[in-house]
Amino acid sequence: MTTTQEQRFLTFSLGVEEYAIPLLSVREVIAVPEITPMPFTPTYFLGLMNLRGQVISVIDLRQKLGVKAQTSSENAVIICELNAGHLGILIDSVNAVITPSSESISAPPEIQGSLNLECVAGVFRNQEKLQEKLILIIDIEKTLSGDDRKAMNKNVAGPKQSQPKVA
Q1: pLDDT of residue 154
Q2: Which residues in the chain belong to E strands, given as ranges?
Q3: First to last CA, the chain
Q4: Does position 2 have pLDDT exceeding 60, yes or no?
Q5: Do residues 106 and 121 touch, judged by C-beta distance below 8 A?
Q6: Is the pTM of this model over 0.90?
Q7: What is the pLDDT averaged over residues 36-61?
Q8: What is the C-alpha to C-alpha distance for residues 38 and 98, in angstroms, rounded to an integer?
Q9: Which of 23, 47, 48, 54 would you label with 132, given CA atoms 20 to 30 Å apart?
Q10: Dihedrals φ, ψ of 59, to 5°?
Q11: Which residues contact 14 (CB under 8 A, 6 or more apart)?
């Protein structure tokens, strides 16, 4: 992964692991709002939320990535700006904003047979308390399948007006 000295990331926890996303893709971080569930959607798709008049799809990133959730008072929703619009991602807790050096970021490992590894954009080696900790840098766009993007766009567009039938 190529990066500049100025590239910053928002780190957050999912279960016991730490992840990061580029800070430029983050619109805001909010407390978990009221979410309206949508029928016939994948289990990780929590539903829709109203953010100051804007309808935003919300996914549970823990379920999407297969991480065991930890429900606490620190749960939050990160509102991300994507090419397809805005998306809320439910996380366990926000940790920090970091500015890693380009030398501390590596390309993700290649693991054969792993279909979901393409959402990992890089691995950051964080030296903390004389202990090296790895933080996965996630590309939120790549966590979404084509069907996820269609559902996002369809749900945000709102219900279609039914046309009266002509006899």
Answers
A1: 58
A2: 9-14, 17-22, 26-31, 45-51, 54-60, 76-82, 85-91, 93-98, 105-106, 120-128, 131-138
A3: 60
A4: no
A5: no
A6: no
A7: 92
A8: 35
A9: 23
A10: -120, 155
A11: 61, 62, 65, 67, 69, 91, 92
